[in-house]
Amino acid sequence: MLDVTRLRVLVAVARHKSVTAAAEALHYAQPSVSHHLARLEAETGSRLVQRVGRGIRLTEAGRLLADRAEEILGRLDAAEEELAAHSGLRAGRVRLAAFPSALGTFVPAAAAAFDAEHPGVDLRFREAEPPEAIGLLRRGEVDVAVIFTHDDGPDVAGLRTEQLFEDETYLVAPEDWPGDRLADHRERRWIGGCERCRDELLRACAAEGFTPDIRFTTDDYVAAQQLVARNLGVTTLPALALTAHRNDRVRVVRLPGRVRRVLVAVAGAAPDPPATRALLERIRASSPRPPAAGPEPRATAGRARHP
């Protein structure tokens, strides 16, 4: 059986790229780190590190074990938190990751309701696009993730997911540019969003027989609308982004059949810890009901990253 302390040492070496830095991070003496690595190699029967000049690097076996160890340690840390909460040693915590337009709309309402109902629980949340949020969830760095997916969405194998709603897609064009279909703007300049959103735009345009001329890219849905308002191009945005912010100098048209699915995801087998279960309930209650909240004008300020 692998020793947890030695796994922590290996993860620290992988993260900090040297024995010295890993020892400082763990508050260990450097010879102690070297000893733990040697013992872990003996336990696994594999060479995990190799010397390169004055430093070391992980072998392929070392990288594989370090990746798995990071997931295992995240789960162990989460289990300690849950047990502590159940034992009454502390109130516990729950950690949430969500994509930008979810954070700009329904997630704060869910977080505020949870915080009011459970003031003793340490609620933390962070912005993360779906692939990053899924990685955080698998490594045990968050407990709940709000993500979105198109037809070729991120791999959620091994996670428990629940669809919250479908988020409709809208064509966003200058007020005086006619045309309610993507193909009506085939000769126009286009504004692309994040990588996943650009891929979806390319698929949607291909379905209408053309490739958009993407001249600008931004993951900020406020900036995208401002570019449109200045007649610099057209774009597409989901309803959540338009609910978070709507520029009154652009025209929006719903694109029938173009939706993304908004999901909530957790890792591990049911039942969920009490704090996680309570947060999931508040997220469900705060989510827009189908059809997704339409793009009514909303004032906002500051940077708002693309869906």
Automatic annotation (TrEMBL):
PROSITE patterns: HTH_LYSR. Residues 2-59 form the HTH lysR-type domain. Transmembrane segments: none annotated. Keywords: DNA-binding, Transcription, Transcription regulation. Residues 281-307 are annotated as: Disordered. It comes from the Bacteria. InterPro entries: HTH-type_LysR_regulators, LysR_HTH_N, LysR_subst-bd, WH-like_DNA-bd_sf, WH_DNA-bd_sf. The keyword Chloroplast does not apply. Pfam families: HTH_1, LysR_substrate. Residues 295-307 have a biased composition (Low complexity). PANTHER family: HTH-TYPE TRANSCRIPTIONAL REGULATOR YBHD. Belongs to the LysR transcriptional regulatory family. This is LysR family transcriptional regulator. It comes from Paractinoplanes lichenicola.
